[in-house]
Amino acid sequence: MLRRRFDLILNTVSANLSVDSYLGLLGVGGAMVNVGAPANPQSYNAMSLIAGNNVLAGSAIGGIAETQEMLDFCAEHGVGAEIETISGVAAYERVEGSDVRCRFVNPSWYYGRINLVHPPREEGGRPARPFGN
Predict the structure, then answer these.
(1) Ranked by mean pLDDT, which of 8-12, 103-107, 126-130 comes out on top?
(2) I need a labelling partner for 16 at 20 to 30 A (CA). Which of 24, 33, 41, 70 fits?
(3) Is the pTM of this model over 0.90?
(4) CA-to-CA distance for 60 and 37, rounded, in angstroms?
(5) Pairing of strands 26-34, 55-58
(6) SS3 for 34-83, per residue?
(7) Domain count, the chain
(8) Cα separation of 133 and 130, whole Å?
(9) What confidence tens digit (pLDDT) does each residue in 86-120 have?
(10) Which of 9, 36, 61 is the last residue of a domain?
């Protein structure tokens, strides 16, 4: 079970979510930071924050154009992120088994909106060169 297991949840999607469900995954003193902005207002139960001494925060990091500019810069300079493309069920099983070493991405809904840049891959799906090395 994943309840109360995370110190930080970084929400990057611009979709309406069950905020209370995600806040329930935070451990004591955990934080959920939203960088995606859904079109409709979201609500949550204040006790979801108070009970665990948790924080709900947000940050404006830029839109599609800024993201594309950053990805172009990274591609030009050989900078990559260590990610693994994975299904939701597999991600849950891996988190449950404490087998997470990089960011999991399930981008099927996002393909075609920006040009995703991925570092070269080794056999098994891991990046050939981890970020920053």
Answers:
(1) 8-12
(2) 70
(3) no
(4) 9
(5) parallel
(6) ECCCCCCCCCCCCHHHHCCCCEEEECCCCCHHHHHHHHHHHHHHCCCCCE
(7) 2
(8) 6
(9) 766 777 788 778 787 766 665 554 444 444 444 44
(10) 61
